[in-house]
Amino acid sequence: MLEQLKEQFKESFGQENKNAFFAPGRVNLIGEHIDYNGGLVMPCAITYGTTLLTAPNKEGIFRFRSTNFDETLDIEVNESYQKTGSAWYNYPLGVIHNFLKDEKEVEGLDMLFFGNLPIGAGLSSSASIEIVTAFAINSLFKGGLSKLDLVVLSKIVENEFIGVNSGIMDQFAVTFGEKEKTLKLNCETLDYQAVDCNLGDHLLAIINTNKPRKLAESKYNERVGECQTALKALQKELSITNLCDIDSETFEKHKHLIPDATVVNRAKHVVEENDRVELAAVALAENRLTDFGNLMYSSHDSLKNLYEVSGKELDTIVEFCLHYPEVSGARMTGAGFGGCAIALVKKDYFEDFSNKITGYYTEKIGYAPSVYSSEIGAGVREI
């Protein structure tokens, strides 16, 4: 694939590329809608992601091209930029905008992006393109930023330039991911622990509902607001900064402070999901895959019934998994409202699983899902 991209780069820009970079996507094994509530998440990098080929140009122009999209952008090197429309290149443009805000020196650059992550499926295609751009720009122009600096910069791009109130998990996972390990990440302190993720005779199946979601246009920001409402209510009696500062027992004693039953449900999910991550880390470390799988199912139930971010498509996938004996656990992953589910499937049964879930889902929903198998991969790097 890299050789094909090099040829395409030459066709697009009339010169050969000088450098190539890769940033993965991610799945979150457990700990959903926690990252903006200051709690624990457990993401891992996957082997799908975004490749970026680059070469400097002498025209003082940033040229953006993608094998996945028809839109292109040629724009002069300037001190600042603004988001225009909803084109894909707003993500790398936002990264460069924030890089320049720190008064970093840059020059003209030709850029060709290729991604094999399904767009809008909840596998962090946006974080992948942000981080690969940030890593490349920092490396090429000797910006001197640490990996954590790049994570923070890319989160600011997502929040302020793109306009999505997401947390820091996605950018962190695609930057710091390690092969065959998951990251137990505290989203408030950014302390993390790489937890061995030995799936043994299982693999990680990713099932795309093929119902795309657009976070900036979804109810994602609404959920963020509901959590903030719950936090303010609890702060009347509790000295806390985030919902995840308390455990389930403490929440039950103080939930009467929240007058809205729907907001109670949102907060209940967050607090209990944070507890599940602690249990999941221990289960994985002790190689108790069945217990880990049961926590995945519990997480999905909570996201479906308390947080209400699932949907018929995701629920159909999890329902099938519950009745397929060679699956140890399944849940929606990502923000929901469509996107993907994940499942722990015995390797020897993956083909059978793929065929049967495709038939089941197609009959129930009316169109087919896409089913992938993935390993747990490494984070952003030059290739």
Automatic annotation (TrEMBL):
PANTHER family (UniProt xref): GALACTOKINASE-RELATED, MEVALONATE KINASE/GALACTOKINASE
Keywords: ATP-binding, Carbohydrate metabolism, Cytoplasm, Galactose metabolism, Kinase, Magnesium, Metal-binding, Nucleotide-binding, Transferase
EC number: 2.7.1.6
Ranges of residues in domain GHMP kinase C-terminal: 281-356
Binding-site residues, substrate: 32-35, 220
Binding-site residues, Mg(2+): 126, 158
Membership in a protein family: Belongs to the GHMP kinase family. GalK subfamily.
Boundaries of every Galactokinase N-terminal domain copy: 7-55
Enzyme class: transferase
Residues the entry annotates as binding ATP: 66, 120-126
Compartments where found: Cytoplasm
Catalytic activity: alpha-D-galactose + ATP = alpha-D-galactose 1-phosphate + ADP + H(+)
The protein's role, per its UniProt record: Catalyzes the transfer of the gamma-phosphate of ATP to D-galactose to form alpha-D-galactose-1-phosphate (Gal-1-P).
UniProt protein name: Galactokinase
Keyword match Plastid: no
Domain GHMP kinase N-terminal: 90-177
